[in-house]
Structure to design on (416 residues):
């Protein structure tokens, strides 16, 4: 069923009695051309583009829980392409372009709001770093604008400009950045993939791989064995656990990243704002709540919850630049399991096992990368060759010395 204003009017006049489910609930077949493990944003986007762009429709997406229950529904909804290094910037700019046309493409309201993002800087050295990043973004085809203090005061008058320790000196703006309704992205991709014939199988946990003579022939699941000519893994924070069942040890650690939302407030924050002297980022939802986050919890965990020291650190960051939020009540918090790579950049690659592919290591960048990740992963699966903008995302890049260390922190996943 295609969604449209005419269809809404028709359904309203007839009692909304003939709406169809957004996607089917099929039983798994014995065999598929492609099995995608993980029904999050990346897995569903891969299935969508695989079926739409490459005509591969005998595809199954296996999700151990329910659609929207993983990291795709546990983030702060920010989308942007303000990266600097060549291995990253072209990829995230592709993602930004896909975001801009996504709702029309898959016929679903994902509430994409390009309200802009401003990264604040607090000293002269940081200004120079941001100027360099902005120039790199422009050279890669993205948009960037370096703002001085006067321009920031006009746009964000509520910031604490007189803070002696963290004075706001300006910021780097990307006007095309913004926010997207996270779970709607999963629903839109799921609906679009289902419309193209993809089987989305929920409550189907993978318990092992069927590998013989170095070839992956399928997977073992809680709903029986399912054969597949190609098996594509994209399970975010569970990457290490799942790939261990195939005998692989990944350059990845799993950490918890917390996100928070406050009580509803009147409109105050026009876009996304990030603190340059600490890890804090905030936007305001359509319901009025402040949605914000900060650093990972710093210890390895598979729990979808965090700890109080990080709550304190994040709130301190917010108070440092916006003391006005001090009396706002925190409604809830949640945690997503981050697959932190050794250099802070992801992987989209074939493995040494024939027929087994891997997508992971997204660190903080997973949600904003969703459409490009699916687009490039689908390209890899269909053509057995990497997409040009994702060719640097190799699993063996640490052996060859071709790291993509966007943050400059070295091989310490807890710092990326």
């Amino acid at each position: 069923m295609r969604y449209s204003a005419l269809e809404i009017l028709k359904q309203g006049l007839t009692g909304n009695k003939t709406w169809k489910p957004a996607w089917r609930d099929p039983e798994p077949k014995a065999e598929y051309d492609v099995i995608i493990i993980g029904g999050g944003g990346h897995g569903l986007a891969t299935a969508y583009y695989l079926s739409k762009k490459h005509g591969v429709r005998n595809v199954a997406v296996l999700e151990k829980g329910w659609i929207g229950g993983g990291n795709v529904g546990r983030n702060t909804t920010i989308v942007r392409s303000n990266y600097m290094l060549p291995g990253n910037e072209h990829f995230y700019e592709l993602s930004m372009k896909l975001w801009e046309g996504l709702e029309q493409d898959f016929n679903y309201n994902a509430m994409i709001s390009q309200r802009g993002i401003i990264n604040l800087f607090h000293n002269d050295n940081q200004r120079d770093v941001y100027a360099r990043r902005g120039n790199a973004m422009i050279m890669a085809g993205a948009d960037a604008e370096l703002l001085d203090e006067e321009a920031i005061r006009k746009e964000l008058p509520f910031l604490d400009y007189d803070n002696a320790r963290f004075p706001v000196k300006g910021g780097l703006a990307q006007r095309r950045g913004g926010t997207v309704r996270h779970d709607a992205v999963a629903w839109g991709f799921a609906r679009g993939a289902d419309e193209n014939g993809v089987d989305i199988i929920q409550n189907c946990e993978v318990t092992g791989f069927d590998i013989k003579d170095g070839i992956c022939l399928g997977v073992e699941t809680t709903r029986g064995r399912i054969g597949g000519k190609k098996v594509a893994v994209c399970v975010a924070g569970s990457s290490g656990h799942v790939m261990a069942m195939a005998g692989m040890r990944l350059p990845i650690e799993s950490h918890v990243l917390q996100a928070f939302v406050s009580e509803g407030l009147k409109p105050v924050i026009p876009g996304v704002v990030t603190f340059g002297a600490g890890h804090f980022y905030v936007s305001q939802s359509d319901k009025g709540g402040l949605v914000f986050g900060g650093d990972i919890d710093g210890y390895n965990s598979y729990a979808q919850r965090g700890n109080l020291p990080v709550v304190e650190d994040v709130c301190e960051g917010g108070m440092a630049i916006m003391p006005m939020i001090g009396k706002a009540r925190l409604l809830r918090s949640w945690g997503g399991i981050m697959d932190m790579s050794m250099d802070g950049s992801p992987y989209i690659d074939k493995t040494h096992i024939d027929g087994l592919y891997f997508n992971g290591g997204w660190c903080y960048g997973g949600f904003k990368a969703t459409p490009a990740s699916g687009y490039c992963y689908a390209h890899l699966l269909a053509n057995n060759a990497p997409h040009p903008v994702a060719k640097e995302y190799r699993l063996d890049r640490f052996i060859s010395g071709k790291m993509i260390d966007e943050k400059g922190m070295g091989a310490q996943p807890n710092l990326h």
About this structure: The mean pLDDT is 95.
